[in-house]
Amino acid sequence: MKRHPLRSLTATCIVLAAAIGLGACGERATPTGAGDAHDTTPLVVFAAASLKESMDAAADAWLAGTGRPVQVAYAASSALARQVEQGAPADVFVSADVEWIDWLQSRDLVDPGSRVDLLGNTLVLVAPADSPLQPFALTPGTDLLPALGERGRIALGLTSSVPAGKYARAAFESLGLWSALEPRVAESDNVRAALLLVARGETPLGVVYASDAAAEPRVKVLATFPEGSHPPIVYAVARVAGSARGEDATHFIDWLQSDDAGAIFRRHGFVLN
């Protein structure tokens, strides 16, 4: 298995952002001029990279409805969880799997009473939009090596820690394909970095979420992984323990479960839990 030279800088940016008050890259800030002076300190949300477009839209809708700004930092769930452990000033954490919420909860770093299984997603195999490959059904024993060619690789999130990478490995193992594909894997720090490899044509195949594929016109979906080939994809949200904005964090988590927020997530390819 190879770590691709194209590395996402987002996780590093989170370290910098924590040090300088989230003024670095890999984040989205809503304007801070709206609302009362009491509300001008942004609510800080750490969110899985795959939520980028949908959470940006949710933050804008929250600001429009409440006048309270939200600042969102995006990276792999694993990187964000470790930043919370190191004391990064987050109020809300949204993970692309339940394991990293469990990990923080076991360390008393999130409030278990605030925890909600918020969203679902679908795992898909993608190729560059101009690829000659046509859609097909992924079944046990499907041979993907011809699609990779002699030197091509398949882009995945880190299979040891990034939720999308873990789901991908589990699916390939379930289908009996992992042993053949493992030497051809290009690992990325988060699912959006894997998506970018495919979008740029640097790898002929990649595994991402359906919501990622919908957000990137330079890729096309070749196949959807069968239900049951991997653990259910569950996005979980919780309030970070010790948040200085605990009441606002609770209200924001409640709002993420509303019909208005649900419509945003559905529009971006997510499934509501």
Describe the 3D structure.
The protein has helices spanning 10-19, 52-66, 77-85, 98-106, 145-148, 163-174, 178-181, 191-199, 210-215, 246-256, 259-267, and strands at 2-3, 27-29, 43-48, 70-75, 92-95, 116-120, 123-128, 154-157, 185-188, 205-209, 219-224, 234-239, 271-272. It has a 7-stranded mixed beta sheet with strand order 2-4-3-5-12-6-13, with helices on both faces. The protein has a 6-stranded mixed beta sheet with strand order 1-9-8-10-7-11, with helices on both faces. Helix 2 (52-66) links the parallel strand 3 (43-48) and strand 4 (70-75). The radius of gyration is 19 Å and the shape is elongated. It is built from 11 helices and 13 strands. Helix 3 (77-85) packs parallel to helix 4 (98-106). The chain has 2 domains: 8-120 and 235-272, D-Maltodextrin-Binding Protein, domain 2; 123-224, 3-Layer(aba) Sandwich (D-Maltodextrin-Binding Protein, domain 2). By secondary structure, the protein is of the alpha/beta class. The model is unreliable at 4-25 and 30-37 (pLDDT under 50). One of its GO terms (cellular component) is outer membrane-bounded periplasmic space.
**H-E string:** EHEEHEHEHEEHEHHEHEHEEHHE
CATH C-level class of the largest domain is Alpha Beta
In the CATH hierarchy, the architecture of the largest domain is 3-Layer(aba) Sandwich
The number of E-state strands comes to 13
Q: Provide the CATH topology of the largest domain.
A: D-Maltodextrin-Binding Protein, domain 2
Q: CATH homologous superfamily name of the largest domain? A: Periplasmic binding protein-like II
Low-confidence stretches: 4-25, 30-37
Sheet with the most strands, sense and barrel status? 7 strands, mixed
Level of helix content?
Answer: 25-40%
Mean pLDDT: 90
What is the CA-CA span between the terminal residues?
34 Å
Share of β-strand residues: 15-25%
Radius of gyration, Cα only, in angstroms? 19 Å
Number of domains: 2
Annotation field: number of helices = 11
